[in-house]
Amino acid sequence: MLMRQPAARRRTLCATLMLILAFALTGPPAGCGGAQEGLPKSSAELEGARTSAEAYLTGSGTELAAGKTDGASVYSVDVTLDVAGKTVRGKERVLFTNRTTGSLGEVVFRVYANDTGAGPAAISRAEVDGRPADSRLDGDILTVSASGGIDPGERALVSFEFVEPVPPSGRDNTGGIYAYEDGTFDLGNFLPTVARCDGGTWDTRPSPENGDMSYFDCSYYLVSFRAPGGYVVAATGVDLGTRDGARRFAAGPVRDFEVQASRRYGSVERRVGATKVTSFYLEGDSEGGAEALDAGCRALSLYSEHFGPYPYRRLNICEAPLEEYGMEYPGQVLIASFVYDDPEYAEDLELTVAHEVCHQWWALGVGSDSVGMPWLDESLTSYCEYLYSLWQNGEESAQETLEELTDLYVSAREEDVPDAVVEQADAAFEDGDQYTAVVYGKGALFYDELRDLLGEAAFDESLGEYYRKNVFGNATAAEVLSAFRDNSQAPAGVDALYTRWIREVHGDEDVPYPYE
């Protein structure tokens, strides 16, 4: 997510493609939400679909993913968007593998849509391995009981039906991430998603107020999505085409599955290597849509060159009625409409796209705890705005970008927003202003200090190592620091910078003011 402080005078925000699938996505509508008979239903069919979903990966992506997603969950979901009723409904099946060392008596899902201000979601007909199962939805946490438990290494087929109201934009509490406006439906995090289970403990922390709910393990998705005629559907994954009015998508390994549906979308596309980049724009914004495509293609090329290859065959850039500048999902990023059509923000379009595309490396490629340690992806991604500007537009542009990052902190301090430790949970920050100043501003400048210490070549190599070792997995501060230490002639200096900039409070001393 890309956020900017109101106090800083900016609006607040934040394999081969045609593999023959092991299952046939054909058949007449049936069941909940117009379900398609061809989607995998049994454990064996879902296990077979894992390989098919990897059609989303490029050749480089296949190499990067090798051996990293054993036991990952596999989703098969039939979904219908009811435009008149403003609901999303569907039938979800998940092949879940217990990758912990102890028996699990339940499988826990995060149902983000139940905590968005739209009214209660409904879960029904829960089953585990074909037998009725007790389920409980408490806020955005769904617990499905597994009678007899799921032993380490064992699999369970969990299924249920869901109905989720979609709120109007401005009356949701997601900043437009899960909302509708004027014929456009932003369906961020709409699919109930298996929560992370670490050491036998499920992650049931509240969704962050400022950051993103993206801390999921990589999984595989086979999704049939039905929308009314005239609606353009953009989604994570390989587009397998339409049958009986339902679009089919396959994706994996990815951390989540996102859909945009709009009766107002036009599009323009281009290839960058093995990846097709598509810019979806709302009517009247074709010029901005073309600019977003240009920026996305440039960012994709530059980050792949410097950090490591983008692993997927598709990347969508979608204009969306957000309150924030942008939001990221696997293979699909959202860019706020006001950046396209408000002259005050038009110059921000390029960097907003560059920021959100960069999250394909930091947060979605290399996962990290977006709730407990949001700086791990947001501070680095913000600093990469500077790197993008340097590589694409030269030193003068890069310096301007660095000054903007500096101003996030300086402007907040001028308005008495207190400094704070960077390395802390989202909930520990006083408010969004402090979060933005410290995580997006001061935290980003930490990486500029590291780059000065290591030099450009070693800095790039460090990020490349961090990506290659941790992509499709989840990293901590230890992993990112290890990558920089390994490429530094002064590893103790890396630790000292980390302690001073990230774990202590010295912003007023260390952040350059005025710009030096």
| N→C terminal distance | 28 Å
Do you know the CATH architecture of the largest domain?
Answer: Sandwich
Beta-sheet strand percentage? 25-35%
Percent helix: 25-40%
Q: What do the pLDDT scores average to?
A: 92
Biggest sheet architecture: 8 strands, mixed
Number of strands: 25
The strand order across the widest sheet is 7-6-10-4-3-16-19-18
CATH T-level topology of the largest domain: Immunoglobulin-like
Low-confidence stretches: 5-37
The count of domains is 2
The coarse silhouette is globular
Which oligomeric form is depicted?
single chain
Radius of gyration equals 22 Å
| CATH homology-level superfamily of the largest domain | tricorn interacting facor f3 domain
Layout of secondary structure:
Blueprint: E1 29-30, E2 35-36, H1 43-53, H2 59-65, E3 74-82, E4 87-97, E5 104-110, E6 122-128, E7 131-132, E8 135-138, E9 141-150, E10 155-165, E11 178-181, E12 184-187, E13 193-194, E14 197-198, E15 201-202, E16 219-226, E17 232-235, E18 238-243, E19 246-254, E20 259-262, E21 265-272, E22 275-282, H3 286-306, E23 314-320, E24 326-329, E25 332-336, H4 337-341, H5 349-358, H6 375-393, H7 395-414, H8 432-454, H9 456-470, H10 477-486, H11 491-503, H12 507-510
Parallel strand pairs: 3-16, 22-23, 23-25
Antiparallel strand pairs: 1-2, 3-4, 4-10, 5-9, 5-13, 6-7, 6-10, 8-9, 11-12, 12-20, 14-15, 16-19, 17-20, 18-19, 21-22, 24-25
